[in-house]
Amino acid sequence: MPSLLYFIVEQRKQPDLRGLPTAVVQYNAWKGGALIAVSYEARKYGVKRSMRGAESKQVCPQIQLVQVPVARGKADLSTYRNAGSEVVSILSRKGRCERASIDEVYLDLTDAAETMLAEAPPEILEVIDEEALKSHVLGLNSEDGSDAKESVRKWLCRNDADRRDKLLACGAFIVAELRLQVLKETEFTCSAGIAHNKILAKLASGMNKPAQQTVVPFSSVKVLLDSLPIKKMKQLGGKLGDSLQSDLGVNTVGDLLQFSEEKLQERYGINTGTWLWNIARGISGDEVEGRLLPKSHGSGKTFPGPQALKTIASVQHWLHELCEELSERLQLDLDQNKRIAHTLVLHATAYKVSDSDSHKKFPSKSCPLRYGTAKIQEDALSLFQAALREYLGSYTAKMQGSQNNHWGITSLSVSASKIVPIPSGTASITKYFHGHPSCSSTKQSQNNLIEEATPVPPSGNESYSEVNVTKPQIEFPGEETMIKYAETSSDQLEDKIDLLNDQNPCCSSTNQACDEFTQETVLVSTSGNEHCSGMNQSQPMKNYSGEESCVTLSMPSFNRQEQKRKAVKDKRTCSILRFFKNQDPSCAPQKLEHVENTEDVKAPPLSPGIQSRSNNCLDQNRSELPKERPPEDAGDSNVCGSFQIEHRRGGAWSYNIDEIDPSVIDELPPEIQQEVRAWIRPHKRHNTVKRGSSIAHYFLPTKNT
DNA sequence: CATCGGCACACT
DNA sequence: GAGTGTGCC
Questions:
Q1: Residue A181's domain spans which residues?
Q2: In angstroms, how far is B6 C1' from A547 CA?
Q3: Is the N or C terminus of chain A more exposed, i.e. has fewer CB atoms within 10 Å?
Q4: Main localization of the protein (predicted)?
Q5: Nearest nucleotide (C1') to the CA of residue A103?
């Protein structure tokens, strides 16, 4: 956990730590605990994460070690989570915001940048924000002798710049302001990257730390990537990056350019291959998701070495602690965000003393999640026992309770996933999630039903004997929810939207008493053609005047057939359409029948790469609705022609997706936004390349050249 | 044994 | 859809 956030949070608690070499450590007992965050001052002394506390004292005797809070015998990260939420609530003011991790956020500032460019472009500003002037602009030849700030100012305010760079400049101003805002309101500092897509923004954000921002002009992308070590790219820091280096001899991102998309797909599968081909060119269609809340909650702990758990009783004890924390967080999520988790998952790792198949993994198990701490504890234990039996296989060590010589548990974790917003009119429903005893009074007759739906009622047959009262309410989250929305009065609807505009509902009730100082990462992508950081800048963007359809720059637009193709899919769509219908009569579908034509949609005769690139580039043409893929962009002209992806349509899809005003989408509750965007975006393709059962296969040498 | 605990996502 | 594995912070 390299997160500096942890450090800053602690610094905020103890201001006198500022300027001192400091590290955050958890569990002081064994060798001084593990370092999980190290201040820059401490780094100068050679202190690294991966060191133990005692070790760090050796290289830096004066280091200040601060401990992670402990609750229920385990690390409690809630203060850090809350700190992240504080920042998110500020950053989400200016655009779509994705909370990528506890200390990382992506923003889509396209709209804000467009607006600024139209209404108050940098060139007319009289006073230039000092913070913006401190930006690092990649590729800006700071001609010796000239002041860095002055050249940044010139770049930011250049009148004759490419429009894409103008948007980035606006983004730089907006980000500078946001960072100041964060500092003012939370005392945390943050770094940021400003670029045309997420992966480049992410890359840039790490280039000048701490507390600085870096811009990647469109024209600098190629130079930047050419010599960039491959493993610096997000997602390539692990085995995939290793494989690129050792198997393909790719050491820099630029080295990737020599491989055809097909070649990369051959080796790494369709999706990864295409993804690699694209990022080599600075292209990424990865969208900023508009999600301020986590998709799952988990609580876990490791029991290394001699601490391994060897009795059911000890496992039960720790599961109780973990489940208690999880339950508490679920309850908070429910109260604050009106969301319900549907699935409980148990993970563990174990060792088994040498026996035949002794390095089998301890299996994960899941079951429907029932609210209430006691129920969660009970279910988690049942899951554990089921997994343990499977793990131990044939020989069932009967010895429970007392020491056993056969196995030991070295880690335990419980998590809750499939979290969806509560349908609506929550008041009467939510009480059932507060662990009310009333839950248990349900009919036996339904037990079978539940048990059937629940694959793992391990030992205790009573584990699942209680019917989950909430079930009927949440069984069809997608459809039900949408319908509820559709039926909601406009008042309630506004509530939903308020929730969204409220910035961060999840921290509304949390601390604003802030006094300190922090470091966090802000990643920003902006610009209309955000996905298109292709190398080929020779082609100026076409112009357009958006009237044609209700396309806004905040969303990629595709041609109509394309949209139709993507829109099909699940029945959930149907309910969403209803939502739209009620929302905006002007876009109302005439009929809601939808067609099951997704299956016959044999992939059109073009590669996914082409598909992706096309999509990316359409952005440039926005309202033009090109009939064919524009030749510009990615240099590789062999990809053109393919745009009729869609001619596969055929079906009787009766809803004109084009008629949905995309700007409306931004105003929907986040979960709906997500779903709606999902249709409009290209979907991942199934990997048709058969290669064996594991993805590790991709990393193995292949016969075909 | 001992980089912890935690997320997200791809793949089968 | 459940379970595994990877990768990041």
A1: 80-224
A2: 46
A3: C
A4: nucleus
A5: C9
